[in-house]
Structures are given as structure tokens and as C-alpha cells.
Amino acid sequence: MKKLYFLLPFVLFACKSNTSIVNDKSSKVNSQPVEIAYKVEQSNVSDFLKYLSSDELEGRETGTKGIEKAAEFLEKFLKKNNVKPYFKTYRDTLTNFKSPAFNIVGVLEGTDPELKKEFVVLSAHYDHIGVDKNKKEDVINNGANDDASGVTAVAEMAKYFSETKSNKRSILIVFFAGEEKGLLGSKSLVEKLKVQNFNLYAQLNIEMIGVPMKRDYLAYITGFDKSNMAEKINEYTGKKTIGFLPKEAEYKLFYRSDNYSFYEAFKKPCQSISTFDFENFEFYHHPSDEFKVMDIPHMTSFIQEFLPAVTQIANSKTQEITMKN
């Protein structure tokens, strides 16, 4: 997460079976919840997150050997799960960082001849802040919650779509570098996509979902009032999946993560989803942000609950998620 210096000293925000879509109507008419038979395996969530937040990766700071190992890990995951590179390779070189650095970008082509021309972006940042040599004991900022948790969620969604072939629209899977340096990875990528006339429908960016909130909804969305995305996600899941977090609006978190780079370029619904609510996690940018403090059952349930939403977003006949005036 990218720091909010002018808001709070230490608070930031900167995550093989058949699919049955019961009803598919316009945004003006409520549709039935989407039924999903696919089950997310808790062991897969645990294994993925454990490695990505391990000491071996030395906090995944952009431009270091640690994030290079993370990039290799993500490339292997996408290849194993038959997610093709969007560019010539999975590596999208940042144009705004002095050392070699890469976003990891894959694509799942849509199954519908027309809808596949539209893209849904599922994203999270895989970089963190690396090693703090001023510390005397634990010097590695592992970034399990920030944002290995979000990367894990997006990876599991990619695996789901790869196995089910249930996306009529094309899906861009993006793991950003340089988020902690000022949203550099997303800023670099959108410049290239704009030149290609990239046909974006919506972006779901996942940020810090490693621990649950004690609220009557699962997660919150940044820029709640900017689009009808929250309303539509709840409609698709048939649950109170998304709620409004006043702190999010107060601290303007919509502008503090990689969704904003896409919104600024495309003016489409591009928002971040999180369960970090300023009360449930005290280890932001801290060496104690480690795998052992992550709630794996919660993360697994989070991913499972979002599958109906991302499925309908990828399959609705019309663009049901729209910006508000």
C-alpha cells in the first residue's frame, strides 16, 4: 500500500466445474445471484501466500533480487494454469523506474466472439518495501497482508477462470510492481494500453484482504459512490458482500492504489476492494506483517464469495457496472 503521508502517520491503503448464471439483465433490473460449483481450496491459498510472503523474497522491494524471485514464481503460476502472456512475455517492463522492474501480465481470452473484445482487469500489487537495515532483529518487511494477500486472491481467480472457461469477456490478470514507489507499475501499464485502444469494461483491484473485519459486510470498496459496482457485486453474490466504510471516503483511498491509474486513463469503473479497516491490523509496513498472522480460512471464504461477482462481471450481456454522475 502506498503511504498517506498527509492523512495519518502510519495508515495507508496503497486485492473444473460448471458455472451457472441464473439470470442476466440490465443494471436497471435486479438479477438472481450467480451459482458457483467451483470450490477454492484452502491449502492452495495457504501455500501460495506462504511462499510469496516468505523471508526468501526479502520483502519484494521493486528493483531487488527478492522481487525477481517473486516475478519468477508468478510467471510459473500463470504458465502452469494456462494463462497466456498478454505481451510477448509475462514481463511488462516499467518505463518509469531506473532499475529493471516488471509488472506480470497475463490474459484469458473471452469465449464470446463479441464480448471478448471487452476486458475485465483483475489486479493486485506484488511489490512491498523490502528490508529495513536499521532494525536490530527482524529486518524483513514480508508484506503478507500488503499485498501478498491480494495477489493470492487474484491468482486463485485466474486459476478458476482458466479451469472453468467461464468468461465471455477477456480477463487481464495483472500483478503490479512499483505500487509502493508511487503507483509506478499501473501508471506505466496504462500508457501502453491506451496506445492499443484497450477496451476496458471494469477493474477490480484487491488490496489487503488477509484479516477479516468485525462488520456486517465482508469487504469495502474504494470510491463507493463513484459507480454502482458495490450494488452490483452484492446483487451477483446475493449477500452483503460490499459495504460502505466511512474511513475510506475520509482518507480518499480511491486515489491511493493502482485502480486510480486505470480510472484516470479510462474513466471507467476501476476500484479497489479491501478488508483492512484501520482497526483490524496493526502491522502496516512492519516486519510483523507475516504469513503467521494471516487468516487463511477468511481469505479462502473471501475468494469464494467473490467468484459469483467476477463471473457475472465477465459474462453479462451488457455493461451493467457503470459510473455515476
Provide the β-strand percentage band. 5-15%
**Low-pLDDT segments, ≥5 res:** 5-29
SSE ordering: EEHHEEEEHEHEEHEHHEH
Rg measurement, Å: 18 Å
Class based on secondary structure composition and strand pairing = alpha/beta
Distance between the termini: 28 Å
Overall number of strands: 11
Discrete helix count: 8
Helix content: 25-40%
Mean pLDDT: 92
Described by strand count, sense and barrel closure, the largest sheet is: 9 strands, mixed
Shape: globular
Explain what you see.
With 325 residues, the chain is an alpha/beta fold. Helix content is 31%, strand content 14%. It has 8 helices and 11 strands. The chain has helices at 42-52, 65-80, 144-164, 184-195, 229-237, 246-250, 259-266, 296-313; strands at 19-20, 35-36, 84-85, 91-93, 102-108, 119-125, 170-176, 200-206, 219-221, 242-243, 270-274. Strands 3, 4, 5, 6, 7, 8, 9, 10 and 11 form a 9-stranded mixed β-sheet that branches. A two-stranded antiparallel sheet has the order 1-2. Helix 3 links the parallel strand 6 and strand 7. The longest helix has 21 residues, at 144-164. It is globular, with a radius of gyration of 18 Å. 52% of the residues are buried.
Summarize the structure.
With 325 residues, the protein is α/β, with parallel strands linked by helices. 31% of the residues lie in helices and 14% in strands.
